[in-house]
């Protein structure tokens, strides 16, 4: 492979990531549109159902996820400056924040299962149609978001390994850059999910 082809690789990687992000926006955009339609049809039921969510937990997870985006961005900065050890520490902090986010979300989901507020639960099916739709969307959208968090953690973990092996460096930062770009998307999606599910007035 020529040196020109080597130089083009990072650009192809960035373009590929942006194309992937566009497909993710389409996916979640469709879900947000579906949410909007059902909320318009059942505003009172959506409001009543939202009272069963913990605003404290939602707020805490928002702070944690925003903090993780900051540490990820700082990791990219340190990597571009050639400070590999600092970059690895910051990626580690990002992973800890992600783990904290999933832990809080796990407790939230556990509470919903205890109260019978999960899809097809007898108690949930006895509630008004709008509340059934609300919790169906809640588990679908936050569950899909959690899957993205887990995938992002996997990519960052792989990036840490590649940094330790000397394959991700100042001159070849594309893996961590793309992982951080994907992580920012996860953060933005949550920033929309939080008010839609937790802050219904």
Helix fraction, binned, reads over 70%
Mean pLDDT: 92
Number of strands: 0
CATH architecture: Up-down Bundle
Number of helices: 7
Overall description:
There is one protein chain. With 201 residues, this protein is mainly alpha-helical. The protein has a single domain (3-198), classed as Cytochrome c oxidase, subunit III, four-helix bundle (Four Helix Bundle (Hemerythrin (Met), subunit A), Up-down Bundle), CATH 1.20.120. It is built from 7 helices and no strands. It has helices spanning 3-41, 43-50, 55-80, 84-114, 122-125, 129-164, 174-198. Helix 1 (3-41) packs parallel to helix 7, helix 2 packs across helix 6 and helix 3 runs antiparallel to helix 7 (174-198). The longest helix has 39 residues, at 3-41. The chain is elongated, with a radius of gyration of 20 Å. The chain starts with a helix and ends with a helix. Residues 1-8 have low confidence and may be disordered.
Short description:
With 201 residues, this protein is mainly α. 84% of the residues lie in helices and 0% in strands.
Summary keywords:
mainly alpha, 0% strand, elongated, 7 helices, 201 residues, Four Helix Bundle (Hemerythrin (Met), subunit A), 84% helix
Chain-wise SSE layout:
Layout: H1 3-41, H2 43-50, H3 55-80, H4 84-114, H5 122-125, H6 129-164, H7 174-198
Helix pairs in contact: 1-6, 1-7, 2-6, 3-4, 3-7, 4-6, 6-7
């Amino acid at each position: 492979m020529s040196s020109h082809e080597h130089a083009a690789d990072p650009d192809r990687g960035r373009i590929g990531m942006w194309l992937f992000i566009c497909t993710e926006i389409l996916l979640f955009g469709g879900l947000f549109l579906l949410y909007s339609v059902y909320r318009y049809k059942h505003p009172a039921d959506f409001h009543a159902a939202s009272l069963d969510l913990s605003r404290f937990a939602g707020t805490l997870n928002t702070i944690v996820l925003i903090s993780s985006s900051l540490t990820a961005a700082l990791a990219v900065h340190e990597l571009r400056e050639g400070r590999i050890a600092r970059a690895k520490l910051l990626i580690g902090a990002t992973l800890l924040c992600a783990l904290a986010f999933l832990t809080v979300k796990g407790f939230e989901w556990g509470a919903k299962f205890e109260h019978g507020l999960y899809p097809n639960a007898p108690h949930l099916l006895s509630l008004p149609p709008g509340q059934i739709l609300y919790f169906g969307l809640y588990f679908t959208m936050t569950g899909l978001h959690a899957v993205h968090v887990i995938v992002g953690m996997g990519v960052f973990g792989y990036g840490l390994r590649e940094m330790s092996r000397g394959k991700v460096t100042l001159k070849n930062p594309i893996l961590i850059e793309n992982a951080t770009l994907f992580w920012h998307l996860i953060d933005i999606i949550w920033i929309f999910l939080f008010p839609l599910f937790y802050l219904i007035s």
